[in-house]
Each structure stands twice: as C-alpha cells, then as structure tokens.
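May I ask for a protein sequence together with how it folds?
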Amino acid sequence: MAKVVCVLYDDPVTGYPTSYARDDLPKIEGYAGGQTLPTPKAIDFQPGTLLGSVSGELGLRRYLESLGHELVVTSDKDGPDSRLEQELADAEIVISQPFWPAYLTAERIAKAPKLKLALTAGIGSDHVDLQAAMNRGITVAEVTYCNSISVAEHVVMMILGLVRNYIPSHQWVLKGGWNIADCVARSYDVEGMHVGTVAAGRIGLAVLRRLKPFDMHLHYTDRHRLPESVERELGLTWHATREEMFEVCDVVTLNCPLHPETEHMINEETLKRFKRGAYLVNTARGKLCDRDAIARALESGRLAGYAGDVWFPQPAPQDHPWRTMPHHGMTPHISGTSLSAQTRYAAGTREILECWFEGRPIRDEYLIVDGGKLAGAGAHSYSAGNATGGSEEAARFKAAVTA
C-alpha cells in the first residue's frame, strides 16, 4: 500500500468554515477548445467548499483509506525539520499546490527513494526539479486547465485595479476620508491602452478575450503563434520577441511557465525597454521577475504599478521587498484557488490518482514528466532543467512567523 503525502495551506485563522457565502457553484460544461472537465469515478466532497487547506484534504481521505493507502496531510513543508522532510523517506506520492508549494528539489528527491509520482493539485509544476524527476523516472502530473480561467479573471481584475488606482482609493474609505484628488491623481482609463501578454496559451488567450470588450489594443508574444483566424478575430498583434512587445505596451501581463529559459526574464535590462509608466501584472510565477529590479522600477517611476499573486519563494519571507514597495497590488497566491477552482482541481487530483492506482494511463494533457522525459503538456510548456534553486529561503518565513 502506498503512502501519500499531501501538502496544503493552513486553515483560516478563524477556523475551518461551517458555512459559505453561496450555496452552490455555476455549472461549467467544459473548457474552451474541447478539453473535458476532470472525470473521476466519484468525489467525496461538496463542491464549493474549502478543499485546498489542511482540513479540506482535497476530499481524498475516504477514497485513499478505502483502498488501504496511508494519507498524510500537512502544511509544514519548509526546512530540514519539517513534517514533509520527515515523511519523504517512504512516500510514494507527493501532492502539492502551486499556492503553497512543496519544493521537490534534487536533494529532497534523493531523500525519497520510493517516490514515483509528484502530483500538482492545480497548474504549474516548477516547484519540482523536473530534471531530477526525469533522471529518477518519477512521473510528474498536474490538473491542466482546472483554474486557467480563474487566473485570467484575476489578471483582468488586477489590471483594472492598478490602472484605476482602486486599492489606494478603497483605503481612503477605510480611513474615513473623502480624498478624491488623492484617489484620482494616479487613475486612468484602460480604453485605448495597448496591452500585451507574454504567452498566449490557455490563460494568456483568455485574458486577451476578456480585455477585447474594453477597446484596448491587444498584443502577444509566444513561441507558438496563434492561428491567423484567432489573430483576426481578436485583432491581435504578434511580436517575435518579448522586448519588441514591451516597447509598445502600456500594460504587460506574464502568463508563461517558469523554467530555466524564462527565469528572471524581467530584469534591470529588459525593464529599460518598457514605456515609462507601464503596468506589469504577473500571476504566472514570481521567479519570472528579478525581485529587486521590480522594486527599483516602481521607486524610480519606470513602472507605474506592479500586481501579482506569485512570489519566490512561497510563502514569501516577511522582509520580501514586494510587501512594501510603492504602487503594488500584491496578494498571496490566490488567483487559481477560488472555491470554484478548488472543486475542479480536487476532482482532477482524484482522477489522476484513480488512473495511477488502477494502472490506467493518465490523460496526456495532465502529464509533465513521464518515462524519463518531458511529456504531454510538459513537452509543450517546459524545458529540461531546474527552477527550484533558492527555495530554501522559504524557511525564513516560517521562522519569522513562529518566533
């Protein structure tokens, strides 16, 4: 029987919910492009409930224990004395979320001789050293598309929030003020602005579709160019390089995977190509950006605003400069873990586990690494190598909050 270690974020500080703001979820029939929603044989949870925290357990305990497997659920993931480290020696499966990633570095993989499957409950498996997984023959899988639209909605919200100066204006209300001039001194319309996405996959293209009704000029760059019919439908301008696109855009949104080729692609030099006063939104991965270069660009005015919900490492240390830099709209990594998204990625996790234990093939679109090489979605989105370096810094956050 297998040991399954599941790393999830902590429950709410007020305790696990006993009731929710809504009684149900809208029914989604399928994804754009024809991919079906997760299709497990059964689920043991109520859709629309909090599944991504420790008490939610992704709705997996009854299923796994009915088969005789052991399920360990913890939020304690960072440092050599963490619960995750203690459980690695005989873990066959490690399940993690991008929002609270269990960094499976080469060192940790070496401590887990029985590890066969690294499963991401969500999208984005860069917290796994993919090269080490390939070398060891470990399968890496994720629930593609489960929260792509959730993230796209978050991107649009953040663009509007930055450009319209929403967060500072709301803070004046909380402080009891009516300071209209202070609110609007940095407020603009998005109409007529040029917005560009780095990568126009499921998330990037969904962002562009949602921004078209705002009468913005739409741009993109991607190593896989979109069909001419899509470019024509949305009025898209394609750019061969990121830098070429940066020069013409008022708003740039990052929607590409993290791998060695994209790490720190936004840095001191590339920021010089941005229009002065441009806005940057990053809901992809924090390590796409040079942390300190972003802070300096906001302080100098090169960027008018930066928003995102991805950091490196995660959780971010208390002294991470993105917590205190000016004109930011940062959130914890929440864009892809709405209650709606949790229902889909929990069901997708269950589907992958059913396939694994029953010896059935995992959907090709869920595979990142299989048989010692990049596979499925991984072959399309990633490159060989490792992007987990530096993740040990996350232990500093744990030390700071428990001191």
Residues 269 and 278 are 15 Å apart (CA to CA). The first helix runs from residue 61 to 66. DSSP finds 15 helices and 13 strands in the chain.
